[in-house]
């Protein structure tokens, strides 16, 4: 996994840091994960803070449109959806008293489920556990499916190898284009494969 700091800043209205991670495993829809952590002071200018973070996020998303952007932190009264409406807020439980001032945003709908945990030590902030996407574990709960699998005994493998080695493949591609050649070879392969009866399991 590689990690690189994209940008960071500290003003009277906003403190933030953005890092880009390239993980060993990611869904093919995403080229990387860009994480932004921020703090917005309750007495700071909300409009200025939101404009700064919107500019930062738009800038790195324009450079890498396939990145998965996750923005999390202490937003206080600020709401990122007012400047970036395509982002979804995933923290639904109170994080300080009865207020939800800590947010987590990304563009994937229902990406996380938030669960409130007790605060650390004497902190008046609750810890929020963001668990895996809903339905992510359904892959392991699917009903087993029966499939027929063709067995290839060693004798059949040798027979097929001999057959293909004796075939003059250049004949098929002499007077036809690539599509015709692919179809001809595929049909020939299917004929040779089915010419010998093989058990199925």
Automatic annotation (TrEMBL):
Taxonomic lineage is: Eukaryota, Metazoa, Echinodermata, Eleutherozoa, Echinozoa
What is the name of the protein in this document?
Endonuclease/exonuclease/phosphatase domain-containing protein
Question: Which InterPro entries does this UniProt record tie to the protein?
Answer: Endo/exonu/phosph_ase_sf
